[in-house]
Design a protein that fits this description.
With 144 residues, this protein is mainly beta. It is built from two helices and eight strands. Strands 1, 2, 3, 4, 5, 6, 7 and 8 form an eight-stranded antiparallel sheet that branches. The radius of gyration is 17 Å and the shape is elongated. The relative contact order is 0.31. Belongs to the PIGX family. Pathway: Glycolipid biosynthesis; glycosylphosphatidylinositol-anchor biosynthesis. This is Phosphatidylinositol-glycan biosynthesis class X protein.
């Protein structure tokens, strides 16, 4: 394993999430700034997506084939036509890429889609709460 004080790297870590674009088809941008330089460590964000949004597994597979993103989705079979009230939470493990402008910074974006909600009288908006992701740091390197 690489000699890195993981506690120091995790201390003072900041995580931000941004929804880019408008409407039902958005991009979720995740940015992580570690407390110290991670020196070749792998960084990932584990996110629980509520039923109101989803990642399309077919779109994700296409992005991965073109090396545009690295992610794992649980479950990997999703009903993309289901409305919010009959959908379930999803777990997304998104691998972040180093940011060339900052040695302690990592980022990745993934397309997310909003689901239809139940009809509501007198409102045109639905609230979808996106929790903060867990940051996973792997600093073990092997010759194999």
């Amino acid at each position: 394993c690489v000699t890195l004080d993981v506690q120091a790297a995790c201390r003072d870590t900041s995580v931000t999430q941004e929804l880019l674009k408008e409407g039902f088809h958005r991009d979720l941008l995740v940015k992580v700034e570690l407390g110290e330089d991670a020196g070749g460590c792998a960084v990932a964000a584990q996110m629980r997506l509520p039923p109101g949004i989803y990642v399309d597994p077919y779109e994700l597979a296409t992005l991965q084939q073109h090396n545009l993103t690295k992610a794992v989705l649980f479950p990997d079979v999703i009903d993309v036509e289901a409305p919010e009230y009959s959908a379930r939470d999803l777990l997304l493990l998104l691998f972040l890429e180093p940011d060339a402008r900052c040695s302690r910074c990592f980022r990745a974006a993934v397309p997310v889609h909003a689901r239809y909600h139940r009809p509501a009288q007198g409102t045109e908006e639905a609230l979808v709460v996106l929790e903060s992701p867990e940051v996973l740091l792997c600093c073990c390197h092997s010759e194999i």
